[in-house]
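Following up on my earlier thread - several people asked me to post the actual chain instead of describing it. Fair enough. Here it is, all 187 residues.
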Amino acid sequence: MPETQFNIDACLVDEVSIATETSLLPKISEFSRIAPDVTLAQGVRVFSFVNLYGCSIGDNSKIGTFVEIQKNAEIGRNVKISSHTFICEGVQIEDDVFIGHNVSFINDKYPRATSATGKLQTEADWQVVRTIVKRGASIGTSCTILCGVTIGEFAIVGAGSVVTRDVPSNTIVAGNPAHTLRKIEDK
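Reply from S.P.:
Thanks for posting it. Predicted structure:
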């Protein structure tokens, strides 16, 4: 992914022009919040009410309305992230992945509001646990992906699933917790 920084102000557009223009520059709604430390590759489209900070987004990816992507998250090329999705620190999404609406990723195995001393926790009080979504995978609407898992290449996670363990490549899983329904046969 190129490490090109773009002038965000020069790329502001509305959703109508996002759908009709073909420029390689990122397309960003004026109602999105993009921190200066975000890396946007060529052809990225960002819709309204998006919050991005400290992350990287690969070529030709599309970020839907009401999406938040936190620092140290990596989004590959040709990724579609649907509205109302939360991608936290430590998540790596490879190329050609589909993320449905309202998908939530978790990055802490034992979340707590306060430390043992009763003070609000800071970054020093917990560790990020990484999650990887491999190339070509699809995650259905309203899934929750717990931390520390890998979703394999071309795997499909059914809508509403809670993923608590690794999903093998070319496998369809669904349920709470998600379990294997079947392998995907080559066609």
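The chain has a mean pLDDT of 88. That should answer part of your original question.
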